[in-house]
Amino acid sequence: xxxxTITSLLNYYSHYNLMKIYFLVATQPNNLGDLLINRLxxxxxxxxGEVYVDSYGLPNNFREHLYINDKxxxxxxxxxxxxxxxxxxxxxxxxxxxxFTHFFKSPGPTKISFNKNSIALLFIxxxxxxxxxxxxxxxxxLLIKNKVLKFFLDKxxxxxxVRSKKNLEEYKFRTLNFNYxxxxxxxxxxxxxxxxxxxxxxxxxxxxxxxxxxIASLDKLFSSLIMMGYTIEIFYQVIPDYLFNKRIYTDLKxxxxxxxxxLLWFNELDFYADKSFxxxxxxxxxxxxxxxxxxxxxxxxSNDAKVSKIFNIFNSLDLMDxxxxxxxxxxxxxxxxxYKDKCLRIKNNTEKSTSISNDLISxxxx
Length: 366
Fold this sequence. Notes:
The protein is 43% helix and 19% strand. The chain has 366 residues and is α/β, with parallel strands linked by helices. Strands 1, 2, 3, 4, 5, 6, 7 and 8 form an 8-stranded parallel β-sheet that branches. A 6-stranded parallel β-sheet has the order 11-10-9-12-13-14, with helices on both faces. Helix 3 links the parallel strand 2 and strand 3. Helix 6 (116-130) packs parallel to helix 7. The chain is elongated, with a radius of gyration of 22 Å. The two termini are 35 Å apart.
């Protein structure tokens, strides 16, 4: 038999025998954090089989960063359909016919309620359970209040791994595997060497109720930082944050304070590489900073429910001493005095988190 034919047959049978995993991307298309945690989870599970990614409806600048190796396949191109369009039976038939074994959905906030999207997804999960396809939610914040919906979730989903220990304590399930996993952003490993300088990166989602107190506190902090020789770089990595961060810059503009006009996106993640600190109320700004060995300082409005996940996740990571609430004064002098200890603790925590996450994901697929 010709060598080329043998190689083709081997490739065919190795492709045929690979575990088939379906990954439904349902997330914000304009958020770098959401892009990266989806990409990291897809990349990790592609170590165990072929991952068929359903990214229908997302813009190209998001989708292009998901298909990063030859084991990650575009569902729409391969099957000519999507689970996001009703009715979903064409794709569900393909999952049965082609012997898919696992199904994952996007990490991040997951609210299940009596709306058409939640009900449609519960129907899909129930059908997948009938097909004996393992359904997993990994790295989510779970919110489900209705007991009937919770019952159906328990019956149709195999694994839910939530990203804070507080969320783990909020629910009990009879049959599904319910566990804690650190936020998936901590799987990210910088490619370039990290060389620090006297720079601090600042980015915030909109603060409304305490803006005057917030900006007065930042004003004092900026003055102190500049006196200590720091440069301050204000930026945004979620499109709706542009106006608010531009407002901060306009209100506090002075020498050594700069504003990055363009959205920070995947190809520019090394923006974090030379920053010694990041200050934010955005979870993934803080965690990307930590991935690049910058000290992440949370500055939060305790009345804003949207930032509660930062309290919960930082508490799970033993980083609560780096969280301040408005109008609390950030003790930057103390942070500087304990900088080396904090860097070492952050490094150890991120390494431990990576190990825990790798082991838990592996257990879902072995």
